[in-house]
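Field reference: sequence -> structure
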Amino acid sequence: MAYADTLFEDYYLKYASYFIKDRAIPEIDDGLKPVQRRILHTLFEMDDGKFHKVANVVGQTMRYHPHGDQSIFGSLVNLANKDMFIEKQGNFGSTLTGDPASAARYIECRLTPLAKEVLYDPEITEYVDSYDGRNREPVAFPAKIPVLLAMGAEGIASSMATRILPHNLIELMEAQIACLRDEPFEVQPDFPTGGLVDVSEYNDGNGKVMVRAQLDVKDPKRIVIRQLPFGSTTESLIGSIEAAAKKNKLKIAGISDFTADEVEIEIRLARGVHSEETVDALYAFTDCESSISTNVLVIRSGHPCILPVTDVLRHNTRRLLEVLEAELKIERKQLHAKLRAKTLEQLFIKERIYKRIEEVREQDKIHEAIRQGFEPFESKVKELSSEDIDTLLKVPIRRISLYDINRANEEMKAIRSRLREIRDHLGHLSAYAITLLEGLIGRYREAFHRRTTITAFKRVDARKAAQRNLALRYDRSTGYLGYGLGGGDTLFDVSPYDRVLVIRKTGAYALHAEIERLFVDKGMLYCGFVDPDRVFTIVYRDRKGHPYVKRCKLDKFILNRGYEIVPEGCRILQLTTDTDVMANITYKPTPRMRVFEEAFDLSLFPVRGNRARGIRLAPKALKSVRLVRKPEQPDPSGPSEPPATSSDTGEGED
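Structure field:
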């Protein structure tokens, strides 16, 4: 047990913590997993405005990522195909068709302007040592937008998993503006593949959504898929359609894929089938409709936690304010330093303080002379430091001789103006953030338009959508029933979802579904769809040989559970669903018997429960029974559902 405790508390927990924090679950601040952050950090380091070989980027990233090049390459391709932070050149595969990317040595990439604008600022980024201590890598980028919600994420770690759907970047920034203004907001998923989405059960990111392909049904004999449901490719979607067609759930003549930059899958329908009636079947039996469960699990303050989407966006908005405040304060500090340097330089040249040191040779006296020269201007500049004096001493003679005081005044005026702006922005940080977001929205609205249509789906019942195009057969020689049989008598057409009532010769009956191949024994008495109003009339004999008649309805079942329609030990002689028949009974002759045959109108007997015992016709031993139709109704209409497989009129002998 001690070893088990050590194994769990030490090794397993270390492994689980590493996998959760450093591999599978994204960080809430910048929305990135460690490998994605390391790839972008490498691209920032390599950035010179030109494209770089992906193989080179992967190799450079390995300085930070303690895993193989293939994991880095796969993550880079996935990140690039989100079309947000990495610009591609070459074949990066296709998210529409599922085609893989070319080898890393053949494709190139570089950062997008958006990445440089909203992610990168090394002066406010916290860095830590890489896994081997040779380099420094960022803990999290100072992201100004909700990267996590914009790109989405999936990951499986020890005992937990995350699935965050992608959202529209413009709508997210508009929601941030609403958050800054204390206005209500909501955001809904938006998928790169387009399609349709029902968000009625999204539950703020921790529920599920239904997604559908967008179908063009203008042509009655042809259906064209224009957009894919999220999570599918043209290859997987076509495969699901072909599989449904093989199972006779769809009737199609052929399917062709013309996808290039846009999805175009053409489904040609079989003769006698029209597009409107096939749409529900596509949604019910193929990947044209699917359900996606979501779980917003993120790393926040070093710990995994589950949050609603709105809380993630509020966190990112607070993070935006923190980043902007830090940037403004750093810029303010830099401008103050620049203004001081320009003021010192102007006084040094304008007041000819440099003349004081022309004849001085000793370093200490030079410093002292410069300090004395600035004493009259203590109101403009604080006490000079040694660094200030060293900077002034490095001013070249050429700059002194060409010094333009008016230009210097304009530059200092611009700096003071910018400092006033910064002071105003720091005092009205929310307004400044709104202005920045509005600028981003204006520049990137066209590039990030909504692709997915939000709508409410009318739920498709698979049973109703299924077509009855499977021939249910019964092989009397083997006793097998099903639509998967190669031979036998065809009873009627069914769908895979139809429930069929089967009554065997022993009196056992059950309700079955998806009867591909089922042994029901020879001499099956009845097979048909369930009708709660149908009356079954059964003539049977008991152990003593006496005839009984029972009339009942079979309307309450548990699927695949067996029931008995007559008492144990009894034998069914006739079973019918016809209400206009009579039973001609012949008895075994005995001494002093006067009546050897009798006719009974079966419709006069009461309908009882299916568990009730039948009514005895006579205390005589039965020889045979024959069902005949009433003379007054020579042409009765048959049952509306498929008839019993055995004849409703005939003889049953003891």
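Note: The domain at 318-444 is CATH 1.10.268.10 (Topoisomerase; domain 3).
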